[in-house]
Amino acid sequence: MAAGGRYVAFATNGEGRNVRVRESPDLRRWQERPDALPVLPSWARAGRTWSPAVLERNGAWVMWYATRHAETGRQAISAAAGSDPLGPYHDTGEAPAVFQRDEGGSIDPSPFVDDDGTAYLVWKADANAVGRTAVLYGAPLDASATALAAEPVPLLCRDQRWERPLVEAPCVTRWGERYVLFYSGSGWESDRYAIGYATACHPLGPWRKETKRRPWASSSADVAGPGGQEVFTGLDGVRYLAYHAWDAGAVGARRGGRGSGGGGRGARRALRIGRLDLDGDAPGLAPLVG
């Protein structure tokens, strides 16, 4: 995201941090910063703090993230607040903000603020973790953007061959008088992971999938398994898409190269950024920045 004349990128836990964060003046040169969420709430357990996303609200910064619910062992979604986009963020909640226990938990939160100032949250119910079909959900947020303001509504589920075995990582942005919802399908640890999109006349749908027979963005000669995307507006007013992908030919997080690209220990899944073109009949993604 862009904030205070700089760019800030947040990432899943690692390197001894709950939420990794980096800062850049130009989307090319990045510097590591301290843990953005150094203390988890009392109900959470460290080790699986995932997919952080941040928005500004009423002069403060709100981070939505997924973490492990200690009592049940399932993922849950919560919100933390801070006075600086780099953090530290503080979550004082006594319970998760979103926890769909009956659907295997909740992950991949992504906030969206519409032109009229209304904030929404979209996310994934982690039903595939309990052998069911994963569903993407959404709901409006309250004035503080730290809690849901209404009951969640289902947005999308897996129904296309390229999406198997799941859909996840939703994010929404405005597209003229319409809205576009980008989402990831298949498994992130393989080169079949890809990005699809749907369109609607309201941030909560009903959504119409536009990527039915094939994804919108998939593996190429340069990258493999793109996904986990998030839209942001740059300091130049241009919208960009941040996402993760493997280096082509080196895919897979597990030892022995169990990802379909055969990467193994040398595989590297890293942040990529492209210019998002929403001027035509279909979204476009310009050559990568970097």
Rounded to the nearest angstrom, the radius of gyration is 18 Å
From N to C, what is the helix and strand string? EEEEEEEEEEEEEEEEEEE
Give the termini separation: 16 Å
Helix-and-strand structural type = mainly beta
Strand order in space, largest sheet:
1-2-3-4
In this structure, how is the largest beta sheet organized? 4 strands, antiparallel
Oligomer: single chain
- What would the average pLDDT be, to the nearest integer? 93
The backbone outline, from C-alpha atoms, is: globular
Binned, the helix content reads under 10%
Description:
There is one protein chain. The protein is mainly beta and 290 residues long. Helix content is 0%, strand content 47%. It is built from no helices and 19 strands. It has strands at 2-3, 6-11, 20-24, 31-33, 44-57, 60-69, 75-82, 106-113, 119-125, 135-140, 153-157, 167-175, 178-185, 194-200, 208-209, 223-233, 239-247, 269-277, 284-289. The chain has a four-stranded antiparallel sheet with strand order 1-2-3-4, with no helix packed on it. A four-stranded antiparallel sheet has the order 8-9-10-11, with no helix packed on it. A four-stranded antiparallel sheet has the order 12-13-14-15, with no helix packed on it. Strand 8 (106-113) and strand 9 form a beta hairpin. It is globular, with a radius of gyration of 18 Å. The two termini are 16 Å apart. 46% of the residues are buried. Mean pLDDT is 93; it is low at 255-263.
